[in-house]
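Operator note (shift B, R.M.): manual run for Peptidoglycan D,D-transpeptidase MrdA requested after the automated queue skipped it. Running by hand, logging everything below so the morning shift can see what happened. Input copied straight from the record, untouched. If output looks odd, do not overwrite the archive copy; leave it for review.
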Amino acid sequence: MTELKNTERELYLFRVRLFVIGLLALVCFSILLGRYVWLQIIKHDTYATKANENRISVVPIVPNRGLILDRNGVILARNYSAYTLEITPSKITQDLDSLIDDLAELVDIQPKHRKRLRKLMEESKSFGSLPIRTRLSDEEVARFTAQRFRFPGVDVQARLFRQYPLGDVASHVIGYIGRINKRDADLIEDSEDAPNYKGTNYIGKEGLEKSYEKILHGTTGFEEVEVSAGGRPVRTLSRNLPTSGKNLILSVDIELQKVVEEAFGDRRGAFVAIQPETGDVLSFVSMPTFDPNLFVEGIDQQSWNELNTSEDIPLLNRPLTGAYPPGSTFKPFMALAALELGKRTMTQAISDPGFFAFGNKIFRDDKPGGHGFVDMYRAVALSCDTYFYQLANEMGVDTMHDFMAQFGMGQITGIDLDNERKGLLPSTAWKRAAFKKPANQRWIPGDTISLGIGQGQNTFTPLQMAYATAILVNNGVVMKPHLVKQIEDPQTKQRSLTVPKESYRIPLKPENVEFIKNAMGGVVREGTGARAFAGAEYTSGGKTGTAQVIAMKKTEKHGTKHAVERFRDHSWYIAFAPIDKPKIAVAIIVENGGYGSESAAPIVRKAFDYYLLGKRPAEKATPVQPAVGNEIEDISHTHADDNPVAESVNTQVNNAPVNPPATTPSATPASSQGQTPAKLPTQTQPKVPPQVPPQVPPQVPAQAPAKIVTEVKPAGVKK
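Run finished. Output pasted below as returned.
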């Protein structure tokens, strides 16, 4: 039987299928159209930027770092250019060790260079290039360039290197720069300066290089470079030039610095010289020194071990962070406090039997038989301990604290270096805060006695003692000490002063200041400083002092040459010159130097002779090394062993390329020694009352303190 077709149904199904197919086609077309609109219209800017990023590379241009010069224009830190072989770990296509082996056939690569590269790779957070060899020779550059196609991810770059041409001279002042480590990178990323450090590999680590980092660094520039598919630069599209870092003009006289460092020799210690009227730090010596060139590219393990294991601690910045009991250098300030606070007059005198009894304790003078009748002038000039024991007992610890704090003792001076130590100027409030147990918080009156001669818990930095001396001879006018005198724009050569205005003024009576200055002059004329300054062509005042290192028996001498060197007293001397209008104030400490008159004062004499008279010690005259500009080729024959610092070279004229570098206290007080120095025939001595016969201390130490006798006015001393 023949099946009849339902044409209407078939037509209906055909139309349904056609509709579905058309609908699907429309949906697919709509999706494609929507995607096209999304990519080409809505997200056009985003994807266009990404496309350009694949074709255009934004490269930071690191600025030239500012120079550091002394007050007379001698260059202390500078830059020079050279070639560096660098590896970008993310771009190399072979094993690192085999790559370095292949490179070693073209360039001299030592095991230490491999070790340093691996250390840098561990510390680096970026994907940038890292140096395997610095300061390539012309021949090495030529050999590598001819074979460059064999080493993807390896390139030769022209870099700017940091150099400290005077080596270890003033190293604690200048400091050094070093490669940015992980800790540095984290701090930079969290700061507002992060964009300015793009491409920067080195940063100030110590000294002025660190404290003036932002000023020395400058402003980073950028350039847009079109690159090929292989990442090679094709052309520069635009360039925003960097701004070079500014130059630092220091207050330091580097020749004075050399004189003092040479005078120290192999001894340890510190020396600070300040211009009283301005606060200019003329010299800032910490001995022993170190060569900052060792650190800039990464110090080798042997040198690091030598510096860190040395008993002399060369990395310690002694003027800034070394805290020592001031010894008898504290006495002029005690005398001034007594005058200002009405505790003594200039002519009041005591009878000194050679000791001071307080309760059941005896505080002995350095001169066993005592000094006889002693007024304030003689107490300072001859360093009479008994006088200041009694004065401290009468004044009390808090009165001493409040007066001495005005002179910066136990306070932060605010000098332009990081990590300054505060030291300690004790008080009853300090002791309550320092100890938890109530029994330990109570101030013991006997502790006050030793403070009067600069022993006990007093500990000050050499910087603080120089600062206090400068304030004293500047009639109480306080000028903040500073190492940087001017900041210079390298392009315009315009300089801006950093010298601060008067910080504050201590209300001192001029006649009291003049009296103390004259008494300190007596130390030089007739006291412990006379031998060192015999024949000087200028007037000066000073005060020697010793600071105990360990307690010794009363029959032993802390300062003698027979004592074990490390157990000898520290040798202090504070001084100023000339007396009538001081141009320089200093403080020096020679660690384990014994008496101040033997070790410290002769160094100050050499410093004053140079600064005031222009006389250098005859035994050694160090010429200033000139900074001579050279092209990159002229310095390319040296090797990486010299530990340079490199940064990208740019076309600015700031820093001309130059040659690379060629290759604590005890409980028993002590004071200045009471020796009899040679007297100057041309200088008159003030008359003093006749001495009483030496007295013997009682067997039972219950004697009351020596009483003040009637006023005695020595001839030649103005009241």
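Quick read of the result: The two ends are 154 Å apart (CA to CA). Confidence is low (pLDDT under 50) at residues 552-556, 620-719.
Leaving this for review. - R.M.
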